Amino acid sequence: MSSGTYARVLWFTTWQAGVSTLLTLAVALPGAHVFARYRFPGKNLLLSLTAVPFVLPSVVVAAGFQALLGGRGLVNTWLVDALNLAGPPIALDHTIWFILLAHVFYNYAVVVRIVGGFWARLQPVIAEAAKTLGASPWRIFSEITLPLIMPAVLAASMLVFIFCFSSFGVILILGGPRFSTIEVEIYRQAVHLFNLPMAAVLSLLQILLTLGFMGVYGALQRSTTLPVYPESRAVTERRITSCRDWFILSANGCIILSLLCAPLAALVVRSFQSRQGLTLDFYRYLFWHHDQSLFPIAPIDATLYSIGFALATLVLSVAIALPAALILAQKNSRTARFLDPVLMLPLATSAVTLGFGFIVALDEPPLNLRTSLALVPLAHTLVAYPFVVRSILPALRSIPPSLKEAAAMLGGSPLQVFLKVVVPIVSRAVMVGAVFAFTISIGEFGATVFVARPQTPTMTLAIYRFLGQPGEMNYGCAMAMSTILMAVTVAGFLVLDRIRLSKEGEI
Amino acid sequence: MALLGVKDISKTFEGTRVLDGVSFSLEQGGILCLLGPSGCGKTTLLRIIAGLETPDSGEIVFDGRDMSGVEPFRRSFGMMFQEFALFPHKDVYGNVAFGLRMQKLSRWEVRERTGEMLGLVGLRGYGHRNVGELSGGERQRVALARTLAARPRLLLLDEPLGALDRALREHLMVELKEILKTISVTCVLVTHDQAEAYAMADMIAVMAEGRIEQLDRPERLYRHPRNPAVARFLGLQNLIEGTASPGGDVMTEFGVLQVENMPPRGTGPAVLLLQPDSARLESPGPSSGGPALRVTGIVRDVLYRGKHYTLDMETPAGVRLMFDLPDDTPVLSPGREVSLVIDPRGVSVLGSGA
User: Fold this and answer.
1) Shared domain check, A309 and A225
2) Cβ pair B72:A147 closer than 8 A
3) Which ipTM score applies to this complex?
């Protein structure tokens, strides 16, 4: 294997991530402005809606874009029918544009939430001061607003870059064989070509680079916590008054609807639509154990495995994350300082690398889990528990020491204080973390593709296999399965959104 | 011809009438203070003058020109905000120079004038300081220098000392007034603090519930508040009710009183204001003639205030009165009957109303 391959893969990984980040900023910054500065009916609903893509499995997103703009997609089918064309006029399949589009879709909410949340807390009075000093709207933006929101813009950009840099499912499915990021290349080398040394080198490269990027992100994020005259949102929001406001608002609404909702809607439509018209065939087909070579079980059973794995992941993640968070929350503790980077390491490691590591490390005695059902929940737990820790930790840290001291002075033993004071305060955060773990597990693809056995596929694997097969029935089944997975994920998200304390600017 | 004309301005926010037909005018070089409790609409009025809010009706005329539709950044007004609103990402120099750069002055002029302004507010040498590391008083000076640097044709100050602690406020009040008079700028100032208003303003407009209740010179306002609401807002609590007769006499529970400068109001119910510093204890000797007002009542409490005593008493009709008595007054114990003579110059008629 030549070093040319490494260079090619690394170069593609980097530039597609860079371009994706720039495109996401271009689309999402106006959105951040609207959410930060305007008050309008349905705002909170719309804001929740923008976050839905973020929790959607990459497989579902890829399927959604295929359903909308792919060769068999909704738009192409309509155009062919309406204009009597010989072939699909939009040829995005296996092009870079498809990948970029999906990345923008994925990360729109990241930018809107981080930058919008930060922007909303900037006092309008600073811009007003500039206005009374003779600054035109453009100069206010370039000299005052932009420099002030820059830390948030940079932090969000870095996060989007990291996500796109380790993008796997989207590239594998939408890009086809022509495109390879480091992640995809690890998978190809390990699973298709059995070149484990090359996969290992790539994994190491991926880990080192991501760690570096995470370090940069951490530094950038700290700079966004500088208090810039924080302000509650009621003051910073303004109502729609002029035609210009209406224009800005409706343009933003159109972007959200066409970019974020159209692929998901197309997914649902395509799952009920065959050449003969509306049908339930694809869903019916999922229950039918039809093709031994593709699926050793009825595809719908994948749903049961997915939910089972997700529940196991939920329990395991909380069991690990709660004690970890308790240790990390201790101030000035040496253990905490040592454990912090160790516990958060999986966060910097991509799912593909984790999955690859699992099959390399755990496939021989003393610990041979290669054929065990436990392998999938274990891998998912490793992916999910850092997020659970991150949900619990802020709640734990928000408990002022005086509160525990007061409880102790009132006669509470350490155990009583923990049960009666700490637990009730963090219980919401633990629930958020638990649902988060469930949602992550059910949509996990990168690690699952390594560790799941053929007899016990998850939904994401089933969708991937359907999409890889020719024929209308397989395509339709992929859509139907994706729709089910999307429904489960969105349900999880809605639960999450309800119990989450309203905290903008935090993912 | 007044420099600034505020004509019949009204403004409603979400169903609440914040300003209700406010009018006043201000001469070149004058300092006018909008004084009132929070929520009376004074800040909104200031923001409308600045162009940061649009009035529902009425107009702002400046130098003979209607300002409606003129963007704030084209008005050449300067505004200092209550929270100072310094640009956190620029240093002291960058803040003060901002307005000058917007005027596209040459680099040399910007540097010259910024230095001059920092000198004016006593912050020479502070140019490279980060605004985050300044004290409250220093921030206030930077904000003032930034506002004045652009040579505003009209200066608008929103609670300029409101964000500072009391001791600093007293000190900076004098300094601010001095600076404003040095550059003889026309200024509208908003405050809820009457001491600040008296010290700074040529004219004071007392506002309540979106209207100007009284517009007067400070001395006149204090001596002759137009109605009990204004008097109470100014901290003047000694109000006694009576009936005015055509001759200029007012009938009270303490007898008939001849009031100087009685406004030609005719007969009917009237409210008398007794200034807190207008009373002295009645001396045992023969009364010194003249129709002085005598007030009697029961001592409720006496508070020692350093420079004077504050006597808290209740009249037979149950009216509570507070007077400042000199510190050589003999000790009065609560429950004792007391008799005071009121200096006629400390008495004014407010007219009817509660």
Assistant:
1) no
2) no
3) 0.74
